[in-house]
Every structure is written in structure tokens, then in C-alpha cells.
Amino acid sequence: MPLHPVIASVTARIIERSQPYRSAYLARLELARRQGVQRGALGCTNLAHGFAAFPANDKLVLKEQRKPSVAIVSSYNDMLSAHQPFEHFPAKIKAAVREAGGVAQFAGGTPAMCDGVTQGQPGMELSLFSRDTIAMATAVALSHNMFDAAVYLGICDKIVPGLLIGALHYSHLPAVFIPGGPMTTGMANSEKARIRQLYAQGKLSREELLEAESRSYHSAGTCTFYGTANSNQMLMEVMGLHLPGAAFITPGTPLRDALTAAAAQRAVQIVDEAGEYLPVGHVVDEKAIVNAIVALLTTGGSTNHTMHLVAIARAAGIVIDWNDFNDLSSAVPLLARIYPNGEADVNHFHAAGGTGYVIRELLDAGLLHEDVKTILGQGLRKHAAEPLLIDDKLVWRDAPAASGDENVIRPASNPFSADGGLRLMSGNLGRSVIKVSAVKPQYRVIRAPAIVFDSQDDFLHAFSDGKLDRDFVAVVRFQGPRANGMPELHSLTPALGVLQDAGRHVALVTDGRMSGASGKVPAAIHVSPEVLAGGPLGRVRTGDMILLDAEQGILQALVPDEDWDARAVPVPHLASNEVGHGRELFAMFRAAVTTAEEGAATFGLPPLIKRVDPEINQPGGNTDAKEFSDEDTLIKHKPAAIEKETR
Fold first, then answer.
1. Which of 24, 215, 460, 590 gives the lowest tally of CB atoms within 10 Å of its CB?
2. Does residue 44 have a known ligand-binding role?
3. Same domain flag for 353 and 477
4. Which residue segment(s) compose the domain that 315 sits in?
């Protein structure tokens, strides 16, 4: 099947837009590669420090500098259910790498926080910024220059994007991502949602709510709904950074252990010296980013990735924006319904065909780039497979030819909908995104008066006091990354759901986030620019008529232009958001962060002025690249990813 014309055209414009940044990025990758095995650049004192605590045999391997050294970067802690299984992974990885002829070292750990714990709490204001903190922690872990490749242990919301951003800044190192898998299925998601709404109405006690939540989140492993954590896993698969089918194998099983060992050994096989060099900076290219967006859309994944994928792309010198998401969404069919877009959880999705089935269907429909590099080499088709153990040996077979349950996953010829359900919204309120894959058609166009809130607490107090039993659009402002770190406003979902179920026409408009749990109530989120940056959402007054039209992509305050233009953005009262719970430590993030559409990032695109002149950068040398202008630079020895010499 030829590539779909929309996929082709969006990819082409991303390549053109990104060319100067991507070229600079690849030049730096080549420079780092030419410096040779990193241990060879270390002095004897440095190297002795690097293996002082190692067992004698591993120390000997590192001394000889002839066999690969693999870094383990882990986000383990035993408070997050998804990350608790990682406690035992380093020992398994070290053993597998030894068997493959290399050595693995635990290079460093990163923070890992759970949005499910911090929802509605001050700690949530650190959540988004934890992504870039994790990226920096990853860079610190790799800074010792002891390594030929790295494996990354992470699953949840900001953690996988942070690990990948950090990995991409060590572009010359091969990277293999190793998931831990989801917990087994607990309470049905529809029942969980019903109980939350009953609690929001005051019809259940806190004890009853806690008992229900404990039956939903009950063991080690990832939460089973299709939020950001499990969207991360889908994207790692389609970007070729996982072994095929690794995402949704439950923890503590023989198959999970076999996949972990095989992933570690694959890292050994793709180092530069092994002859099959697959650095992460070559794997994550423009086509891989487009594939990731397509996978997000076709599965109804987390809206958080309208920021995370932008930031990941920037780290690789690739520039994408919400127009790209919107245009791809128009061409990509919805092939999966996983809660909150349906009733099934990720275990049902995996049993019905899972990631391999989706990849195969999209490839056959011309909706994914097949000609990409993955950790298995050339071509995404190898990832249209599922793993299994036969006589204790790990093998892969082709993804199933038919869906195991078309209520959960469907072929491209019979999708749940013709588009991906993610829309760009624009108008005099700014630019935002909305996910409508779980919103019924009759709720996708709302015309109602605004009620303005400066926090989610203000909204919840008004709901508890019975003041919101009407048609309205909730405008929750000062929730962007500059204002308070852009916390998720998931606490609003049950209350808005109650009002909608009661027949009220309600919607949410905010410069904050709603996360992968965006559900049945229309929510225009990530409004950019945010109010604190002078965004027009700050001009809205209670009583203004708001049009939210998710079908046409319109987000408009129906206010006369002369009145609208004369309004000032109010001064926020944010002192309470700046201190306590560590928030003062993140002041620099709030001051430096980009807009949501730019990835809500605190780092920039690769500088354009440095280029590689390999004649001054011999292996083992320490001479920096000369600085040239873009116009007069010649890359004499180009990476394979550059098709022609660039002047």
C-alpha cells in the first residue's frame, strides 16, 4: 500500500521545517561517535573511579575496554505501582549483558512521581516540570562517559518522555527502553467512573470510595486505563524503541523476564563496535515522530503527548506543531477503544491483538512509515509481532490476522471512526487541543455563557454549593506552565460528568491540562498562549457567550471586537503557588518554560552554528568542533541519515 498522501505531505513539511536543526543535531551525533569508545577518552584515575566497586570479572572487562558497557538508567521507586517491579530488573539486566559478552552498570536513577497520587494536591504543580528534571537526571547518569549503550527503565506519565529527551541528548548512544507492564485487571472502568460520580454527588462515603479505588489499583504494574503511561508504551513500540510486543506483558511473569533479558542483550548487539550501530539519534527521526503521532491518534491516546511529543522532537532537532497533529488526525482512523474512550483496559487491548495488530493494520493501510530504523534494524514491519515463550525460549510470531474483539480493536477497513478524534481549536481565545474520541457527537458543539474560575478548587466549591446546575462553559485560567506548572485538572471530570448526565450542556476551556483521562465532557485544553503570558483567555468575563465547536475547530468568545480589544488581562494572585511542597525550587522552570504548543519545554532546539570538521576530531581526541556559519560549513563525512553533503 502506498503511503497515504496526508502522511507523506505532513512528513515532508516537518523535514523541511526541521532541516537546519536536524542537520546540526546529526553533526553533533557524528562528532560524539568519532571520539570513540567513551572509556578510551578517560584518564586512568577517572576510569578507576568508574569501576572501583565492581566485581573482579566485570572490572577486568572494563579495564580492557574491548567489550560493550551498558548503562542502566532507572526510575524505580516502590511507591509507584508501575515502577515497583523495576527493583529487580538491574540484576536481570546485568546477568543478560554478561551472557552477551558485555558489562552493565547502574548509571543512575531519576525521579518518578505519580499524577494519580498528586491529583488536586500542591505536588501536582511539580508534575510537568518533572519531565525536564528527569531528562537532566538522565544526562547526569550518562555524564561519566563510561558507556557504549543504555537501557532505560520507565513507564509513567512524564518519566518516559523525560528519559527519552535525556537519551536524545546523548544521541550517539544506542537506547533500548524496557517497560515493566500493567497490573492485572481490577474493577471495571465503567463501574469506577460511576462510583466517582456518586461520591462527587455526596451519595457515597469516603470509605466506600477508597474501597472501590483500592479494587481498581490493586497490585504492582501500570494502571490499566489508557492514560499517558500506557500511551507512552504504545509510542515506544511504534517508534521502535521497545522489543516488539513488550509493552503490555504483566510484571512478575516468565515472559516479562525473558523480554527484559532480551532487551538488555539487544543493547549489546547495536553498539558501534558490534557492527550494527543503531544510535537513538538515528532511530528517532522525522518519520519516527510522525509514526508516533499516528499511533497516538489511532488509539485515542493521551492529550499530554501534544506537548511531550513536541518536546521529544525538539530534543532530536525536529520541529512539529499542533497543525501537524490536526492534519494527521483527519487522515488517521480510530482503531482502538480503551478506557476512557471505551470500556476495555489495556489487558483487553493486548489480548485482542495489541500493539502488533495496530502496527500491522496501519502499515498495510499506508498510514505508517515502514522505512525507519528501529532497535531491530531497518523496517517497522518487524514490530508487527507478538512475543511468546516456547520451551522457555523467547520467540515472536506475526500479529494475529483478525481482531480478537472488535469492540476493543478493529481493522483499518472498519474503524470506530474515520479520524483520530484529536482537533486543533482556534479563535479569539487562542489555540488549544481537544480530544473528542470519547465525546458523543451531540456534546461536541457547546454555546453557553462562561463562568470564570481561577482554580479548580473554586470550581469544586461552586459545584458543592449547588451553583452550577445550569448550562455553562467553565473557563479555568492561570493553570499554564508559567503560572503554576500546568497541573492536571482531573478533579473536575466527575463533577462535569454529573452535570452532563443531568442534561446540562457543559464544557471546559483552560490553559491547564486534563491528561490522558480526558473523557466524555468536551474540554479545550492547553490554551496557548497561557493567561499569565498575556493569552486572550484572560479577557473572558463571567457571562460572556462562548462557542466551543469541536467539529469545526472553533474556540471563540462571542464578544464585540471593540469591547474584546479594550479588555485587560487581570493580575493573578499566585503567591500561594510559588512556595511550599518544593515549588520554590521550580521557579526557574516557570520563568523559562515555552508555550504548551512548543512542548512546555525548558530547553531549546539544537544551536545552528556548530558543525563537524572531522579532520580536527580524530578518535580519542578532545578538540572541540570549530564554529562556522550555516552558509559556509561543509560536513565532509556525513552520518548515514544525511542524504547529501550540506553547505
1. 215
2. no
3. no
4. 5-184+219-398
